[in-house]
Amino acid sequence: MAPEDALEYLSAGLSENEALLELGCGRGSLIRGLRRNGWNGYYCGVDISNQAINYARKFEDLRSSWVVSDFESFRHPSKWDAVAMIESIYYIRLGELPPVLRRIMGMLREHGVLLVRLHDPDKHAEYVRMIRQLYPKMTIVGNNLFCIAASSRSVDQSK
Prior knowledge:
Low-confidence stretches: none
Structural class: alpha/beta
CATH architecture: 3-Layer(aba) Sandwich
Largest sheet: 7 strands, mixed
Number of domains: 1
Distance between the termini: 37 Å
CATH class: Alpha Beta
Order of helices and strands: HEHEHEEHEHEE
Number of helices: 5
Strand order of the largest sheet: 3-2-1-4-5-7-6
Mean pLDDT: 92
């Protein structure tokens, strides 16, 4: 099951005509929860596991697509209203995080948001520090959700 805090945040924040990209979608629990909550926008789920994507594709939904890819090499021509990384940011090596996050932020529409969920922010404090350093204007929702608006600029624009 998708975490309730992420479901609530996205259900409240996404309109019907907005698009969501999930990096690290696993078996598709987030989109299933969003559909149960009534959200009918466009969704694209990305995961490195072919097995997980094959399972996710069993969720027959005409407004969803699925891609087998790692985060570093994933490319898509669309811009997104939201990008969600639910329990998946730790699959990016800490040293690779700045360029990967910059690229992900570039996938957002002007009003878009990157939502990062960490199950245990204390355990992954180095990721929290890095995100705060790069995006000091990020907001924290509850204890586990980190929201970075597309309008936030990385303090490290030179690389």
